[in-house]
TrEMBL record:
Keywords: DNA-binding, Phosphoprotein. SUPFAM superfamilies: CheY-like. The modification 4-aspartylphosphate is found at D52. InterPro entries: CheY-like_superfamily, NreC/VraR/RcsB-like_REC, Sig_transdc_resp-reg_receiver, Tscrpt_reg_LuxR_C, WalR-like, WH-like_DNA-bd_sf. This is DNA-binding NarL/FixJ family response regulator. One of its GO terms (molecular function) is DNA binding. PROSITE patterns: HTH_LUXR_2, RESPONSE_REGULATORY. Residues 149-219 form the HTH luxR-type domain. GO terms for biological process: phosphorelay signal transduction system; regulation of DNA-templated transcription. Residues 2-125 form the Response regulatory domain. The keyword Phosphoprotein applies.
């Protein structure tokens, strides 16, 4: 896998590089500015990029120079480029903005405390290049804990909520089954009950999965109809 690292802090770029190279990832270039990142991606055509959400923010640069805007420009150039974004403070508001980039696929969101967790980073890179949407498990768990009591999600069983959380992380039924240590038909049964409880209308399986994830995001205040007030 060929990857470009983009962060304006040299020490952090070094840590990212050392971490993922230890598992065989080919770091083809590093970018210290957004302009440099855009040029390097066009010249190297990597499989994925690691980008700091607040790229340049602590230096007082213009808002157009942050990682989210860079990700939008990268996505416009290449709908299939894997993008994994990092931030010190993970919030549902950031998650909402990230999943609104392109069609919300081939993208991931991790906390910066994962910087030395090579396996988690490489797993995220692998999954986003395959078209998945990756959400840091810490944020996913936080959002489930803060869901509103009156929300239909509160009526789900623990195993159904776990299946929904993994679904929201962009995992396939097979991957959910492996994570939960159950058979795929069991996962299908869990998700079928989730769809019924959330009143997901009859439609294609892909559409039902998207609607279920949106309901999950709204329950934690991350969706467009949520009440979460965090601002990135």
């Amino acid at each position: 896998m060929r990857v470009i690292i983009a962060d304006d802090v040299p020490m952090l770029r070094d840590l990212y590089r050392q971490s993922i190279q230890s598992l065989g990832v080919d770091v083809v270039a590093e970018a210290a500015t957004i302009a440099e990142l855009l040029v390097l991606v066009r010249s190297h055509r990597p499989d994925a990029v690691l980008v700091d959400i607040n790229f340049g923010g602590h230096l007082g640069r213009p808002r157009d120079d942050d990682g989210l805007h860079a990700a939008k420009r990268l996505r416009a150039d290449d709908p299939l480029l894997g993008i994994v974004m990092f931030s010190v403070h993970m919030t549902p508001a950031y998650l909402r903005r990230i999943t609104e980039i392109g069609d919300g696929t081939h993208i991931g969101y991790l906390g910066k405390e994962r910087i030395k967790d090579a396996h988690t980073i490489v797993d995220a890179l692998t999954r986003v290049t395959a078209g998945e949407t990756v959400i840091d498990t810490a944020l996913a768990e936080q959002m489930l804990r803060t869901r509103r009591v009156q929300d239909p999600i509160a009526r789900l069983t623990a195993r159904q909520r776990q299946a929904l959380e993994l679904l929201a992380q962009g995992r396939t039924n097979k991957a959910i089954a492996e994570q939960m240590n159950v058979a795929v038909p069991t996962v299908e049964a869990y998700l079928s009950e989730v769809f019924k409880t959330l009143d997901i209308p009859v439609s294609s399986d892909d559409h039902k999965r998207v609607l279920a994830v949106l309901a999950w995001l709204r329950s934690a205040g991350a969706g467009p109809f949520g009440t979460h007030t965090d601002q990135p």
